[in-house]
Design goal:
- The protein is rod-shaped.
- The protein is 73% helix and 0% strand.
- It has four helices and no strands.
- By secondary structure, the chain is mainly alpha-helical.
- Helix 2 packs across helix 3.
Amino acid sequence: MPAPRKYPQELRDRAMRLVNEAMAEDPELSLNAAVTRIGPRVGVVPDTLRGWMKQARIDSGQSPGTTTSDARRIKDLEREVKELKRSNEILLAASSFFARELDPRLPW
């Protein structure tokens, strides 16, 4: 179960919209300057807002990186692989146990 979000989605959307508007109004304004200006006004830590903005750019295809949906899929697949490896270990141990039960002369 994922950890509860500290900030509601509405606040995240509003903060990111304000950063985009500030950068559109002043083209010379950097991302760092925009999040430093907007973050405290909306009650969001600038580093958190910067991360949201970077991830939004990745998700929209403006920047290279792992999208949110890809990251979620990778995490799910890693969890499945871990579960399958564990199941495989259990099956190998069980087959070894039953092989010894059937033929006690086997070396294992």
